[in-house]
């Protein structure tokens, strides 16, 4: 599954003015502090798994390059994964890691394999998360993500951008939360 184009807003409130439905069950996930990976693991009844969809050097979108402050034509390490709970894809994640961040200890970020990025970042106290932005996805089919959140992580002069895109199946798997209407 591909991540659809997304309109980014500097705050949850700003996105909510455009799309009031995000204030429902989806809002919990968009505003969740701490590790999304850990929250998804706790929600699983049986098993949590990371599937790598794409990983390697590629060119970020112009908007992603601007957000990270890197030259628009510069390659970065791009990692796209599916976060699966109980054998169902719940979240798609896209991480953009600039070349400068991959130097020195950042080399480890290229070799995570199926290990969740969140597990790595939240176990390294030198990494700090910046503020969340909220994204409204431009869906063309109902199976695509409803909305997203993203944030930059910083460690000194190194940074990376993590986007997390919430699939409708996340809500289908929990009978207490009906699927948002987005």
Short description:
The protein is α+β, with helices and mostly antiparallel strands and 182 residues long.
Report on the architecture of this protein.
Helix content is 21%, strand content 34%. Strand 7 (147-155) and strand 8 (158-166) form a beta hairpin. The chain is of the alpha+beta class and 182 residues long. Strands 1, 2, 3, 4, 5, 6, 7 and 8 form an 8-stranded antiparallel sheet that branches. It contains 6 helices and 8 strands.
Radius of gyration: 16 Å
As a percent range, the share of strand residues is 25-35%
Q: What separation lies between the terminal Cα atoms?
A: 18 Å
Largest sheet: 8 strands, antiparallel
Number of helices: 6
Q: Look at the structure and give the mean pLDDT.
A: 91
Q: Helix proportion of residues, in percent?
A: 10-25%
**Derived structural class:** alpha+beta
**Beta-strand segment tally:** 8
Which outline best applies?
Answer: globular
Write the H/E string, N to C. Answer: EHHHEHEEHEEEEH
Which spans of ≥5 residues are poorly predicted at pLDDT below 50?
none
Features:
globular, 182 residues, 21% helix, 6 helices, eight-stranded antiparallel sheet, alpha+beta
Write the layout of secondary structure elements.
Blueprint lengths: L5 E4 L2 H7 L6 H7 L4 H8 L4 E11 L3 H7 L7 E10 L2 E11 L18 H5 L6 E2 L3 E5 L9 E9 L2 E9 L2 H4 L10
Antiparallel strand pairs: 1-6, 2-3, 3-4, 4-8, 5-7, 6-7, 7-8
């Amino acid at each position: 599954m591909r991540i659809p184009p997304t309109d980014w807003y500097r705050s949850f409130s700003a996105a909510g003015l455009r799309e009031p439905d995000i204030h429902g069950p989806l809002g919990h996930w968009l505003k969740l502090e701490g590790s999304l990976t850990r929250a998804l693991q706790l929600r699983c009844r049986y098993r949590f798994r990371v599937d790598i969809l794409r990983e390697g050097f590629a060119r970020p979108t112009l908007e992603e390059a601007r957000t990270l402050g890197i030259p628009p034509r510069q390659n970065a390490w791009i990692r796209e994964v599916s976060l699966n709970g109980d054998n169902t894809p719940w979240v798609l994640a896209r991480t953009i890691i600039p070349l400068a961040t991959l130097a020195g200890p950042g080399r480890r970020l290229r070799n995570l394999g199926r290990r969740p990025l969140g597990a790595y970042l939240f176990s390294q106290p030198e990494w700090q998360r910046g503020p969340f932005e909220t994204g409204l996805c431009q869906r063309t089919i109902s199976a695509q993500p409803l909305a997203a959140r993203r944030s930059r992580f910083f460690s000194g002069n190194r940074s990376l951008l993590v986007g997390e895109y919430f699939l409708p199946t996340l809500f289908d798997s929990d009978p207490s939360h009906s699927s948002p209407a987005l």
